[in-house]
Amino acid sequence: MTISINPIPRKIIHIDMDAFYASVEQRDFPELRGKPLVVGGDPSGRGVVAAASYEVRRFGVRSAMSCYEARKRCPEVIFVLPRFDVYRAVSADIRAIMLSLTSHVELLSLDEAYLDVTGLQVHRGSATLMANWLRAQILEQTGLTASAGVSFNKMLAKIASDINKPNGTAIITPDDAKAFISTLPIERFHGIGKATAARMHAMGIQNGADLRQVSAALLVNEFGKRGQFYHDIAHGHDERPVKSERQHKSVGSETTFRENLNNDTELLAQIFAQNADAFHQLQHKKLSAYTITLKIKYADFTQLTRSHSVSTAFIDNTSAHYWLDKLFADIPRTLPIRLVGVTYSSLTPANQKLSQLNLFE
């Protein structure tokens, strides 16, 4: 069985910033350089790891791990609070560099993106040279390193960007794809998580070569519609385009307090502050919103949300205060509160009315 590829392969670059949040902190605060650093939580070790420097990753500390576990693994760890306004500003600078090369940029998050550079003639038409130029420009203009993956589809480009981390470039060509995929552990395939990997192991599937031997019908029977995707990627087939205009489903902001709060006045002030940040993001993205959601997390890490939809889009951040106040009043005060967040959804481009949606004042 042979790998199926496009007659004229696309040229896709995946840019992934190296330990982005932690690297920004180490750039801005020289005393943190070379130190085991966690962005997230607080000095007492409460909260969740948002980002981990490479110095602390050597101890097995990873993002989404509890800060308590991070301190157990590395007693010398330093915790700093996130500065998302700074990260967003740096991300905007990086995005501008990418857009100076091509308009075909799909942002996945603040620290990674796909670029489709098919047909570009700059840098001798070499996607590898373009990727290295991007990395050099990012370093020169932001002081941060990035890793790049270059291939003929999104899946392989994303996998490639992780091969030579940090601060490296890796290329997977159409000629290399079959051999590369054959030896790739299934856990490394984009879209195959731990639970799916365990089910595949039970079927005797350990790597790409094993996955390629399983029929599409059997994979669909076992995994539903995702089975066809697994069959395709085992054959190097990923036709997903780079979407330069990403559709936003929601925009929000949240904060975790240094100390749990009980005072309603203080809590409502924090909620309004997160609301102001979320609405600023809406304006920056030129979006209107018809639904607002309040998120609360208690001291025991349980959380709940309350939402309200309106028939006329929120016109400014203060126009949501009335509903946030009412939503907050509906929140049980069973425990002190450690986190509040505000999210806008039911989004449309600014000045465009939302139609055919049942909303109630």
From TrEMBL:
<feature type="binding site">
    <location>
        <position position="111"/>
    </location>
    <ligand>
        <name>Mg(2+)</name>
    </ligand>
</feature>
<protein>
    <recommendedName>
        <fullName>DNA polymerase IV</fullName>
        <ecNumber>2.7.7.7</ecNumber>
    </recommendedName>
</protein>
<dbReference type="GO" id="GO:0006281">
    <property type="term" value="P:DNA repair"/>
</dbReference>
<keyword id="KW-0479">Metal-binding</keyword>
<feature type="site" description="Substrate discrimination">
    <location>
        <position position="21"/>
    </location>
</feature>
<keyword id="KW-0808">Transferase</keyword>
<keyword id="KW-0548">Nucleotidyltransferase</keyword>
<keyword id="KW-0234">DNA repair</keyword>
<keyword id="KW-0238">DNA-binding</keyword>
<comment type="function">
    <text>Poorly processive, error-prone DNA polymerase involved in untargeted mutagenesis. Copies undamaged DNA at stalled replication forks, which arise in vivo from mismatched or misaligned primer ends. These misaligned primers can be extended by PolIV. Exhibits no 3'-5' exonuclease (proofreading) activity. May be involved in translesional synthesis, in conjunction with the beta clamp from PolIII.</text>
</comment>
<dbReference type="GO" id="GO:0003684">
    <property type="term" value="F:damaged DNA binding"/>
</dbReference>
<feature type="region of interest" description="Disordered">
    <location>
        <begin position="238"/>
        <end position="257"/>
    </location>
</feature>
<dbReference type="GO" id="GO:0042276">
    <property type="term" value="P:error-prone translesion synthesis"/>
</dbReference>
<keyword id="KW-0227">DNA damage</keyword>
<dbReference type="InterPro" id="IPR001126">
    <property type="entry name" value="UmuC"/>
</dbReference>
<comment type="subunit">
    <text>Monomer.</text>
</comment>
<dbReference type="InterPro" id="IPR024728">
    <property type="entry name" value="PolY_HhH_motif"/>
</dbReference>
<dbReference type="InterPro" id="IPR036775">
    <property type="entry name" value="DNA_pol_Y-fam_lit_finger_sf"/>
</dbReference>
<dbReference type="InterPro" id="IPR043128">
    <property type="entry name" value="Rev_trsase/Diguanyl_cyclase"/>
</dbReference>
<dbReference type="GO" id="GO:0003887">
    <property type="term" value="F:DNA-directed DNA polymerase activity"/>
</dbReference>
<comment type="similarity">
    <text>Belongs to the DNA polymerase type-Y family.</text>
</comment>
<dbReference type="Pfam" id="PF00817">
    <property type="entry name" value="IMS"/>
</dbReference>
<keyword id="KW-0460">Magnesium</keyword>
<dbReference type="GO" id="GO:0006261">
    <property type="term" value="P:DNA-templated DNA replication"/>
</dbReference>
<feature type="domain" description="UmuC">
    <location>
        <begin position="12"/>
        <end position="193"/>
    </location>
</feature>
<feature type="compositionally biased region" description="Basic and acidic residues">
    <location>
        <begin position="238"/>
        <end position="248"/>
    </location>
</feature>
<keyword id="KW-0235">DNA replication</keyword>
<dbReference type="Pfam" id="PF11799">
    <property type="entry name" value="IMS_C"/>
</dbReference>
<dbReference type="InterPro" id="IPR022880">
    <property type="entry name" value="DNApol_IV"/>
</dbReference>
<dbReference type="Pfam" id="PF11798">
    <property type="entry name" value="IMS_HHH"/>
</dbReference>
<keyword id="KW-0963">Cytoplasm</keyword>
<feature type="binding site">
    <location>
        <position position="16"/>
    </location>
    <ligand>
        <name>Mg(2+)</name>
    </ligand>
</feature>
<dbReference type="InterPro" id="IPR050116">
    <property type="entry name" value="DNA_polymerase-Y"/>
</dbReference>
<dbReference type="GO" id="GO:0005829">
    <property type="term" value="C:cytosol"/>
</dbReference>
<keyword id="KW-0239">DNA-directed DNA polymerase</keyword>
<dbReference type="GO" id="GO:0000287">
    <property type="term" value="F:magnesium ion binding"/>
</dbReference>
<keyword id="KW-0515">Mutator protein</keyword>
<dbReference type="InterPro" id="IPR017961">
    <property type="entry name" value="DNA_pol_Y-fam_little_finger"/>
</dbReference>
<dbReference type="GO" id="GO:0009432">
    <property type="term" value="P:SOS response"/>
</dbReference>
<feature type="active site">
    <location>
        <position position="112"/>
    </location>
</feature>
<dbReference type="InterPro" id="IPR043502">
    <property type="entry name" value="DNA/RNA_pol_sf"/>
</dbReference>
